[in-house]
Amino acid sequence: MIREPGERQEFGGGYSCLFFDCDGRAIELATEVDQRIYQEVSNGESRPKFISHVVFNTVDLHKTVNWYRNVLGFKISDWVEDFFCFMRTGKWHHLIAFARSSMTSLNHVSFELLGLDEFMRGTGRLMRAGHNPLWGPGRHGAGDNTYSYFQEPSTGFVMEYSTALQIIDEEHGWTPKVWGTTPEERDQWGTANEFDEVILAKMAPANDPTLWTPPTI
Questions:
Q1: What is the 3-state secondary structure of the chain?
Q2: Is the whole-model pTM more than 0.70?
Q3: Which of 7, 87, 192, 208 is the most exposed place for a label (fewest CB within 10 A)?
């Protein structure tokens, strides 16, 4: 435990606790945090609505997946073979996912766009600004969401534009599926470039230097 449960002193207030996960990432669980005023995204706007999901690299995939299941209550939605696991807490197919890697690090952060038109507008806006996609645009098999991956130039981190993530109907049950890596499963549309070792290397950078280090908040 980094910080016992109690009142948050940070911006937004609320109540929280802070601790490490099994890989050494600092996690804060918070509630009753004040929400800032924001402007709703309108039809045709190319800016994101919210963070869709976050993917992390982990050396011991099954250990990490089991920790998030047993400690935080996440559910497994689907697998890609035995090297990638999608996890959820509600109706969205995944809020977090883990990829087996030789590194423990951030893989990418995904931003949700309003719809397919807004997704393509957002992708095009970045391309017009000189940022060509690392991978995409396309549509995943697992999760059924669209994707355009870009590398942020100042930090090197990878981000994704996405929309139309699959909604899971818990009432009628859900059995996790094991997806493969065929071209059709990687990209239902067949519009994206081939996923290769260069893209993989950008999504699996060096170990996170902040692991097991209490954050300064």
A1: CCEEEEECCCCCCCEEEEEECCCCCEEEEEECCCCCCCCCCCCCCCCCCEEEEEEEEECCHHHHHHHHHHCCCCEEEEEECCCEEEEECCCECCCEEEEECCCCEEEEEEEECCCHHHHHHHHHHHHHCCCCCCEEEEECCCCCCEEEEEECCCCCCEEEEECCCCECCHHHCCCCEEECCCHHHHCCCCCCCCCCHHHHHHHCCCCCCCCCCCCCC
A2: yes
A3: 7
CB 64 within 8 A of CB 22: yes
Domains of the chain: 1-34 (no CATH), 42-203 (3.10.180.10)
pLDDT in tens, 43-70: 999 999 999 999 999 999 999 999 999 9
